[in-house]
Amino acid sequence: MSALPAPTSRLTIRAWQQEDRPLFARMNADPAVMEFLPHVLSRQESDAMVDRFVDEHNTRGFCPWAVEETASGSFIGFVGLHEVSDSLPFSPAVEVGWRLGRPFWGCGYATEAASSSLSHGFGVLGITDVVSMTSVMNGRSRAVMERLGMHTEPGEDFEHPRLALGHHLRPHVLYRLSASEWDRNARRRA
């Protein structure tokens, strides 16, 4: 198994564990957590997602990793890198993404863990460009993308092909960030 992103001051980014599965399933069954996704997930669908993440880490060296609050040891959700589906108009690409349980919203955790994941992707894995996407209506995730220094490009918004025509979540926005932009922003932050 390859290296994991560095822990942050408050979070541990780690491999998935068996005891994460029921917590993740509960999170994926929460309508508020899944508001900007097509539907809540069953336990079986949630477990299958974890299986895909583990396989992706084993084959590619990255995935949406499990994240826990270091002080409490609480599983809070996932943050990490993911190879996007071939069905998306901007494929091939690596995406940075997150999904956190409701009790952990508003703490800056998504930005913190995504920053560590991006540093790992650009610095350790040698990824040159990363994208992030969400429904145009998802202001919270879009704010995280902007805090990470990601930006949109004219004409790159898209209709998500896995959602039916007319579905209210079908219009998506695409954000981008290159390794050179990340390095430039890091020098400014230092």
What is the β-strand count?
Answer: 8
**Radius of gyration over alpha carbons?**
16 Å
Beta-strand residue fraction: 15-25%
Q: Which parts are unreliable, with pLDDT below 50 for 5 consecutive residues or more?
A: none
Strand arrangement, major sheet = 1-2-3-4
Shape: globular
User: Helical residue percent?
Assistant: 25-40%
How is this structure best described in words?
By secondary structure, the chain is α+β, with helices and mostly antiparallel strands. The chain has a single domain (11-189), classed as Aminopeptidase (3-Layer(aba) Sandwich), CATH 3.40.630. Helices cover 33% and strands 24% of the residues. The chain has helices at residues 20-28, 43-60, 109-124, 139-147, 179-189, and strands spanning 11-14, 64-69, 75-83, 94-100, 129-135, 151-152, 158-159, 171-178. The strands form 2 sheets. The protein has a 4-stranded antiparallel sheet with strand order 1-2-3-4, sandwiched between helices. Strands 5, 6, 7 and 8 form a 4-stranded antiparallel sheet that branches. Strand 2 (64-69) and strand 3 (75-83) form a beta hairpin. The longest helix is centred in the first third of the chain and has 18 residues, at 43-60. It is globular.
SSE topology:
Blueprint: E1 11-14, H1 20-28, H2 43-60, E2 64-69, E3 75-83, E4 94-100, H3 109-124, E5 129-135, H4 139-147, E6 151-152, E7 158-159, E8 171-178, H5 179-189
Antiparallel strand pairs: 1-2, 2-3, 3-4, 5-8, 6-8, 7-8
